[in-house]
Target: Globin domain-containing protein
Amino acid sequence: MVLSEKTVEICKKTAPLLVEYGEDITTRMYEILFMNYPETRALFPEALEAQYKKLAGAIVAYAANIDKLHVLSHTVDDIAKRHVTSNVKSEHYPMVGASLLQAIKDVLGDVASKDVIDAWKEAYFFLGDILIGREKELYASR
Ligand code: HEM
Model:
């Protein structure tokens, strides 16, 4: 599967906004995630704000490099290894995805049109599927 041209275009155009409001979006995302899916709280290190913000920070960084995954600061392999150590499973991806998209809507308001949200949804699950695939292999080889 490849990302549609429209998605890449919208994500690149809106990435600076996500970076600018990154902290607000991140904070809101964890609020929603832990409120709606309290079982995910245990996956993250105890109350280490700066640490658990890594995840949303990475997703935002991905935004800026949507069409060149290889320049991500962390490789897919590093992220997958960290996830497997943290016991992240495929069923958690829709939870984080829904929370992230809702956080973007809450923080950006009208700017987060349906097109913008759809593009981010596609981009999130695109990378998510790659990570899930790699994590399956790592779990199987443990
Ligand atoms: C496309 C989706 C995702 C991306 C791009 C992503 C990215 C990252 C990155 C870059 C890190 C930091 C790795 C490191 O420090 O070495 C990380 C850590 C982590 N991620 Fe993800 N992640 C995603 C989805 C998820 C999901 C669905 C969960 C489940 C709730 C999750 C839970 C975690 C946890 C628990 C950590 C470790 C936190 C820490 O030690 O500070 N991630 N992720």
Notes: The chain has a mean pLDDT of 86.
